[in-house]
Amino acid sequence: MVKVYKKRFLMLFLMCLTNCLIMFQSFQYTSISHVVIKYYQVSEVAVTFTTISGNIAFLVFVYFGVLILEKGGIRVALTFAAFFNWLGALIKCFSLQRARFDVLLVGQTVAAIGQITSMPLPPLLASIWFANNETATVVGVNFGCYTLAVALTFVVSTVLFADSENVNSIENDLKTITIVVTIVTSICAILVLLFFRDKPKTPPSIAQQCRVQSGKDNSSLKLLFTNIDYNCLLIAFIFNYSVENTLTVVLNQTVRSVFGDNSIAVTISGTLLMICGIIGAIIVPILLDKFKTFKLISIICYILSIIALIAILTSIWFEKIIALYISIVFFGFFVYGFASIASDIVVDVTYPFPESTSAGVMYSLSSLIGIILAPTTSSLIETIGIYYTLILLIVLLSIGGVSLFCAKWNLKRKSTEENNVNEQQIVYSVDNPAFTLS
C-alpha cells in the first residue's frame, strides 16, 4: 500500500522558499545593471558574471551536489543549499564600498553554490513525497517560484533604486536590500533545519514503491547517455534554459539599447516576462498531470516559444514597445512552461535512474552553455547590435526544437504506474496535518 501525507506541502513550501531566495540573489544585480555599473564602475559584461557565477559554481561542484543528494538525502541537500545561500548574503554585507566589487562576486558565488543541490532537488522531492499525478505540478510550482524571485528583482529595481544618479542614495539602497536578504535567508535556513524531513513513512506512488523494492543500482552514466529520449530532451532543455536565462540576464541591456534610458520599460518588460513565466510554469505542469500528453504539450510550448522570440525581434526591429510587451508575455509563458516540465519528463523517460543524477547532468550542461552564452550575448549586443544577437538566440532555440521532435517518448515511469495501478490502492492520509512531523 502507498500513501501520501499532508505534510508534503510543508516540504514543498520550504524547498520553494529556499530556491526562491537563491534565484533572487542570483539575478538581483543584473536587473539593475545600470545601477551596478555606475556604483562599482564596472562593465556590462562584468555585471553578467554576478548571475553566471551560479552557472560556474554549479558546473564546478555538480558532482558533489549529486553525491550529497544520493548519500545524504534531500534534507541534507536542502539544508546545504539554505546555509550557503545565507552565507553568500552575509559575505555581501562587506561588499558595499565602491571598490569591493570582487567581494560582491565572491558572495554571489558562495550563495550560488547552494544551487548544486537545490536545482536537481524538485523532481526528487516530487517522487519521494508526492503521488505520480502530482509530480509535474510540484516541479512547476517550484519553477514558478524561481520566476517569481526574478520578477521581484525587477520590481525592487524600480521601487528601491528610483534615484539611480545619486551615488550616496545607491549605497544606502544597496545596504538596505543586502541586510534584508541576509535576515530572510537566515530565517529560511533555520526553518529548513527545524522542519524539513527526508521522506515519508510510506512511498507516495506505485512507481516509487517499485523503485524502493527493487534495490537495484541503476546509476551508471552509460545507461543515461545511451538513452535516446534523454539525449534529445537534454539538447532541447539546454537551449531552452540557456536562451531563457540569457535573455533574462541581458533584458535590461536589450531594452535600453533600443528604447534608451527607460527604466519604466525595463521594469514592465522584466515583470511581464516573469509574471507570465510564473503562470506558464504552473499551468503547463497542471495540464501535463491532468492529460499526460507529454509529447503534444512539450512540442506546442517549444514551437510557440520560438515564434514568440521571433515576435520579440520584430517588435524591437520596428521599435514598437507595446508589441514588445505582448511578445514578452507569450515568450515568458511558453518558454518557462516548457522548462518547468522538462525535468519531470526527463525523470519519466529515465526511470528508474536516480533523479538527482539525471537532473544534475541536465543542469550542469545547461550551466556550461550559460557561462558562455550570457557574456557572449552581452558583448554581441554592444558590437554587432541587438538584432543579429536575437537572431542567434532564435537559431539556438530552433536547434532545441528539432531535437525535441527526434525523441521517441518512451515514458517508463508512466508505464510502470499504469501496469500496476490495478494491483494497489492509493490512500490519501487525512489524519496527518502539515505541521505534524515524524
TrEMBL record:
Residue span, Major facilitator superfamily (MFS) profile domain: 11-412
Principal location listed in the UniProt entry: membrane
RNA-binding as UniProt keyword: no
UniProt KW keywords: Membrane, Transmembrane, Transmembrane helix
GO molecular function, one term: heme binding
Annotated InterPro entries: FLVCR1-2_SLC49-like, MFS, MFS_dom, MFS_trans_sf
Entry keyword Lyase: no
Localization (cell): Membrane
Membrane topology classification: Multi-pass membrane protein
Protein name: Putative MFS-type transporter C09D4.1-like isoform X4
Transmembrane spans: 9-27, 47-69, 76-97, 109-131, 143-162, 174-196, 263-287, 299-318, 324-347, 387-407
GO cellular component term of the entry, any: membrane
Gene Ontology BP annotations: heme export
